[in-house]
Every structure is written in structure tokens, then in C-alpha cells.
Amino acid sequence: MKILLIYPYCIDERPRDYDVRPVPIGVYYIAALLKEAGYDVEVLNWYNINKTPTKIAETLKVKRPAIIGFSIFNANRWGAIDIARVAKEIDPEVKVVFGGVGASFLWEHFLKHFPEVDYVVIGEGEYTFLNLVRALEKNGRGLEEIKGLAFRGDEGPIFTGWPDPIENIDSLPNPARYFTFQHVVSARGCPFNCTFCGSPRFWGRRVRFHSPGYFVDQLELLYQKGVNFFYVSDDTFTFQKKRVIEICQEIIRRGLSITWQAISRVDCIDEEILYWMRRAGCVQISYGVESGSEKIRRFFNKKISAEAIKRAFELTRRYGILPRAYFIYGSPGESQKTIQESIDLMLEIKPLSVVFYILDIYPGTALYEEFKRRTGATDDIWLKRIEDIMYHETDPDLPAEKVLAFGRRLKKEYYRHLPRFLREIDLVEKRDLYPHHADFLTRLAMTLRYGDYARNPQIRGKDSLAEHLFARALKYHPDHHAYLGLGIIYQQKRRFKESVKILEEGRGYFPSSEPLNICLGISYMNLGDYRRALECFLPFESSPEALSRAAVCFQALGDEARMKACLARLKALKGVSA
Questions:
Q1: So which cofactors does this thing need (predicted)?
Q2: What's the pLDDT tens digit per position in 160-184?
């Protein structure tokens, strides 16, 4: 029996798709359990298959699945429906299963309106899906006994009830044995109760933890496959301090040279946690600030104080971890005054990255239930081919242009002050963190030079700020990228002697670095010192860039024979690569 687990596409185009690109980790857990039960299962990341739609039918015709499971959050439900329709046209007998957060809260809607959907897995899906597969092998006998399942009966949709939580989530097979991914979780659930979030209802406001050993085993298996950067997707990674420190210490003990990002709350952080997280490779923590207005935070049931927010951002930054803030605007009661309160708080906490969201309403949240009571809407609203409902669309006091203006104001003020935030970074004086401080400052400089900030015209003085950060990084510790970045900046400013000086210093620490040597050689060429330039290029005889520049040096020195030899070698290399 062939089983496909598909992560479908969203219907709205995104300028950057990093938030919808990764397959949810739950899909890999289900797939791993199915594999260990002996089933032929494959995971397909079809988040952008709509760009080549003919591949949908072509792939399904080749793979001929008996069961297709779709991972649904609200924004990709129409992508799943579209693919399911194609699958049913190819093979009317194929069984289509929806699961995930989006399916769990709209199970009746899907079964009522979409005949392509045969079953909905509700809540934690591993054992429900496995038991469904086993029941389908027996022609559907025993479906009513499977907790966490919804399907059509003779008299309408049947729901068997929410499944019992898996008390020991370490008992699940480790998906890293079978699959490669970057988004990982060390725990399931969140004890808090924000009105805009579906987690409280989905997980029941409980947190269940993987043991440090299980979680780090997963990281190590993925690291051995070449993954060295991770997104830890726990709702609140630092909720249990002792366990977080044990995870970090185990990462260090095993010598895993990884970097990672996490999500936390401002009232679940302290200096000891931050110290060990940074030592273990954490480079960013995202915090839900939501608003500078205490009134709006109360509406969200976000029980955090301004003092806790300020303390968390100051400490995170001091330990060389990038503090990222989530802000939500367009809430009921939003005004120029509340936006100014958000700006004032933002200028005080000095986040080094910010994501601004317009308030959305999603099924499964307290906000959605309030919306239905207030407007008389039903789940049938999702028959529209839309991804979400923005709150301001339901509130006559918040016209769209007013809300968009709020967003423009927030972003303008943030990017106007970001250079000051970067120049005012104050790092904790702990010598064992100096290499991490150098890395932190270098990463910030590279973001200004090559990352998202480089493309942002609202940020002024990016090059001089990057130069400042690279130079400051090198005061803490020799950093390869800082030497290279600073050398390139000096070159571009035609300060070739300074470029040579800093690159020679860097080459002293990293003598075999091809980028440092080539950059250094270019500076020597610009100074007319072709012999020293050749000393930088010639050790890299398999590098087309080094060879082409060495040929120029030989030509300048009048050594035509060696120039031709370089060009011949270059031609041979290009022939092999072609």
C-alpha cells in the first residue's frame, strides 16, 4: 500500500516564502511511525507545486497512492482541495485524509462541503493515522473505535472524539532516522492562552516534553546528514529551565557545531538560560511582544508586563543572541495613540529584527469564536477562496487604509532607528563568549551587506555600519567572515593598503581560506604588486577565479608562457564542469 503525505501550497503569492516553505514536523513523525509499522510512505513538499501544476497529475499517476494525507493549516486548505480533486480524477478509489491544525477545527466543514475529503484526523495525529490505515486495510472495519477521526456516516459526519494525548512522546520513532529537515520541536503544547492562537485548544494547554537525550539525538542524526542550522519550533522553548540547560550542555558535550533559532516568552528567560543557549549555538530568539499598549495586550490575553519585555530584550542582546520581536497591529481599539505606544516600547527594547503582522482571525482561536458570535458568521465563510480573515475587515472602525497606514508608520520608525540599535549593542563581559560575540556582530554586518537589510532602502548608512560591526567583531575574536567582509569593504572604498593589512591578518589565522587569499590577491593587484598577488592565487589551481586572475598577473609581468598555461588549465576546468 503506497501512502503519500503531502504538504500543499497556499493560494496567495508571497514575496518571501520562508514561512510556508518547510513541511510541518508532525508530518515526519507520522511518516516515521508508518515506516516502522512496515508501510511504504513518502513525504512530498508541494508548497510551490502550483507553479508547475502539470506535475501534480504526472506525479500521482506514477506513484499511484492508495492513501493521501494532507497537512492542513488554514492558508493551504484550498491547495489540498485542488490536489485532492486531481487525485480523485486519476483514481476515484484513492482515500484522501486531511489532518493538522486547520483540519482539526474545520473537520465538519470539510466533510459537509468537499466530497474529495474522505477522512479528517483531528488533534495529535500519529496513532490516529496509523489506526486509520490499518482499518482501511480491513475495508473500513472499526473506524468508529479510532479516537481523533471524523468521517461520513449514513446520517451525516461522525466524530469519534479528540484523541488521548501521547503521554511519553519519546516513545515515537525519531523521524530523523528516515528524513532530513531543519524545523524541529523539543516539546508539544503551550500553557498560555493567547486569544489569537490555536495552540491552547489544539494541545489543551498542556506541555509534553521530549527528553534532552531524544531531542539532541535528533539534532545529531540530522547534523550527520549535513544539517547545521535549525529552527526550534516549540511555542515556548525555555518554559522548563533545567531541561533547556541540559539540552544545551548535551549539544556542547557532543561537539555539534550547529546554529539555531528558538521562540520564547519574555517571562521565561534569564541570564543562565541565555548563557547556555548561546554557548550551544543559539543565534536568535523570537518573542511575542504584540503591542506596546497594555490595553491591547490584555485583549490578546498576553499576560506579560512592559518591564519583563524590556528585561528580556536587554539580556538577550547582551548575550549575543539576536532578539526578534513580533508585533500585531489592526486590533480592536487600535489608534494613533496605541501605535505610538508600540513605537515607544520598540525604541526602548531595541529589537534587532521585527515582524509586523496585521491581526488575523483563524479557526480554533478564541478570537474566531468571538468573531462568529459578533457577526453571526459560520464556518461556511471558508467556502470563499481566501486564506484568512483580517480583523479590520470585520470592524467598521478600522478601515483598511487606516490599518495599512499604521503598518507603514511602525516599519518606518523601526528602520529609521535600527542603525542606532546596532551601534548601541552592549555585550556581556564573559571571555568564553567572546568568539560568540564576534560571530554575532559579524552576522549582523553580513545581514546589512547581503541579507534582507541590504535590500531595504529605509535603512541608512548600511556600509559604514557594517564596517563598524566587522571591526568590532575582530576586537573580540578572529572571525573568518569579519576579516573577509572588512577586506571587501576597504577594497570597494579603494583603501587597498588597509584591505591588505586586514586580509593579511586574517590569512594568518585562516591560511588555507580561498576567499581570503583571492580577496587579498585582488588588493595586491590594485597596488601593482603582481608577485604577491600570485602568491595568493597559485595555491588554488582548481579555482577558476584564482586561475583567471593569475593569468592577468602573469600577463602584467610579461610571462606569456605561464599566462597561457593558466588559461589552458582554466579551459580544462570549464570543460569538466560543463
A1: [4Fe-4S] cluster
A2: 999 999 999 999 999 999 999 999 9
| Phi then psi dihedrals of residue 500, to 5 deg | -60, -45
What is the C-alpha end-to-end distance of the chain, expressed in Å? 42
pLDDT tens-place string over residues 145-161: 999 999 999 888 999 99
Q: How far is CA 496 from the centre of its chain?
A: 39
Taking only the tens place, the pLDDT of each residue in 213-265 is 999 999 999 999 999 999 999 999 999 999 999 999 999 999 999 999 999 99
Phi-psi region of 104 (alpha: psi -120 to 50; beta: other; left: phi over 0): alpha
Interhelix angle 514-526/530-537, nearest 10 degrees: 170
In this structure, which long-range contacts are made by residues 238-243, counting pairs with CB atoms below 8 Å and at least 24 apart in sequence? Answer: 238/262, 238/264, 238/265, 238/268, 238/269, 238/273, 238/277, 239/187, 239/191, 239/207, 239/264, 239/265, 239/268, 240/187, 240/207, 240/209, 241/270, 241/272, 241/273, 243/209, 243/212
Give the start-to-end residue ranges of the domains of the chain.
Answer: 2-159, 169-427
Matching CATH number, 2-159, of 3.40.50.280, 3.50.50.60, 2.60.120.260, 3.40.50.10860: 3.40.50.280
* Cα(183)–Cα(360) distance, integer angstroms: 24
Dist. CA 233–CA 237, nearest whole Å: 8
Identify the CATH class of 169-427: alpha beta
- Residue 84 C-alpha from the chain's centroid: 27
